[in-house]
From TrEMBL, chain A:
GO terms for cellular component: cytosol. This is Aspartate carbamoyltransferase. Carbamoyl phosphate binds at R55, T56, R105, H135, Q138, G271, P272. InterPro entries: Asp/Orn_carbamoyltranf_P-bd, Asp/Orn_carbamoylTrfase, Asp/Orn_carbamoylTrfase_sf, Asp_carbamoyltransf, Asp_carbamoyltransf_Asp/Orn-bd. Keywords: Pyrimidine biosynthesis, Transferase. Residues 3-147 form the Aspartate/ornithine carbamoyltransferase carbamoyl-P binding domain. Its EC number is 2.1.3.2. GO terms for molecular function: amino acid binding; aspartate carbamoyltransferase activity. It catalyses: carbamoyl phosphate + L-aspartate = N-carbamoyl-L-aspartate + phosphate + H(+). NCBIfam families: asp_carb_tr, PRK00856.1.
TrEMBL record, chain B:
Its EC number is 2.4.2.9. Gene3D superfamilies: 3.40.50.2020. Residues 13-158 form the Phosphoribosyltransferase domain. This is Bifunctional protein PyrR. Residues 181-204 have a biased composition (Basic and acidic residues). Belongs to the purine/pyrimidine phosphoribosyltransferase family. PyrR subfamily. One of its GO terms (molecular function) is uracil phosphoribosyltransferase activity. It catalyses: UMP + diphosphate = 5-phospho-alpha-D-ribose 1-diphosphate + uracil. It comes from the Bacteria. It comes from Streptomyces tirandamycinicus. Residues 178-204 are annotated as: Disordered. It holds the Pfam family Pribosyltran.
Amino acid sequence: MKRHLISAADLTRDDAVLILDTAEEMARVADRPIKKLPTLRGRTVVNLFFEDSTRTRISFEAAEKRLSADVINFAAKGSSVSKGESLKDTAQTLEAMGVDAVVIRHGASGAPYRLATSGWIDAAVVNAGDGTHQHPTQALLDAFTMRRRLVGRDAGLGQDLAGRRITIVGDILHSRVARSNVDLLHTLGADVTLVAPPTLLPVGVGHWPCEVSYDLDAALPKSDAVMLLRVQRERMNAAFFPTEREYSRRYGLDGDRMAKMPEHAIVMHPGPMVRGMEITAEVADSGRCTAIEQVANGVHTRMAVLYLLLGGNEPAVTHARTEETK
Amino acid sequence: MDAEVSDAARPVLEGPDIARVLTRIAHEIVERAKGADDVVLLGIPTRGVFLADRLAAKLAAITGRTIPVGSLDITMYRDDLRLRPARALARTDIPADGIDGRLVVLVDDVLFSGRTIRAALDALNDIGRPRAVQLAVLVDRGHRELPIRADYVGKNLPTSLRETVKVQLDEEDGRDAVLLGERREAGVPAAEGRRNETARSGER
């Protein structure tokens, strides 16, 4: 169980800082004329996507190719999965092909954990988002972006986010990004506040290592970073709030609200942004919004994760807590 | 498993000797490069970087010019990556003007199998196209596994494979010394110990 990245909660502080530091070195590769390393030459990585995702898949693919891995993209649509093949059969097919790592996105929470622990496959498993559960590389790239902006590119090396105040706003209920971020930011020493309408908070949120509030305006002046989440219409199977306009008025970030944030504070968004709903164009296009930076940082961070999991004969990342939860 | 330097390690170079050989190497670089006009020094982490910094200071004193100096981490280019756990990366810092058309002098503490330098040449390939590449090392302990030799050598130190060479530098270890010791790996036959050592650090 030391070879997989299933949940941001599995990472120790030292693991997380090592990944962020490694990502900083990977970022230097992106500044070179030849953005390629021979590190994973001869290794095969499969991007196994049971759920649509362009951003995450392309990001992983870019990271894998920059490390010279052989990349196989597998989309469930139009594959044998739509003919009824199970996850187990798919896994065994990949195993027979000698795959070294599987990057999996699945609509069902827990699918990557099942793949990693059931013995179907020997490869390292990286969770690229499972249902409403976890998206650890997103949390890592967010932490990387925060550390760069709030601590500094070089000054941040070896540092965590101790004492930084992060506010996460929006649809917490359906958000694996929020869950992963709360876990990782807590590990890195940051204070997290979740802000959402009561209907968009999951049961048991009181036990999460964070504060919960319904009042965005109160949270803004004491935030170092404000992370907006997309309102996931596709997962909305009930009336969670009266109208989009009302949501936007209470939980959307516009120029006036942004002015209440401290001078140094940044606005983050995992994308895709729904302009006019959770964020206005004015905020999205301002220099304080890191949405585009987050995309670039995603490649560096995923390169770091893949290198640390696959670069040697055993991974450099120790998943101390996974052993306990098993 | 890291082979440790035994307590009986014997210093073969000490502080003043190291300063002297670096001064000599600096003069040799100026002589061969006819003034060090286009020289860029790239140290290989960890101790190669400190040596490169010291050489740059000496070159600046000799020529009166600032010599660009950087560091080149070769971890991701190693040929033994898969033989041992993934390791943390060190810093790669290429001087702002790059290395295209320049004379790059790679600087490392110990030259051993030559595999680290092979990896460094690969890494340079991805970064730019130097006019020429030269190699400066503090100690050459022999036992090359690749057709590589150094242009500037602080001290040739014929060693047996049962011996270890450990370089200590003030910046990292609090003192300047080159220590020669006996390997201390209980129960490891010589041939295997050799393989481990190559896998461990390539050059050391």
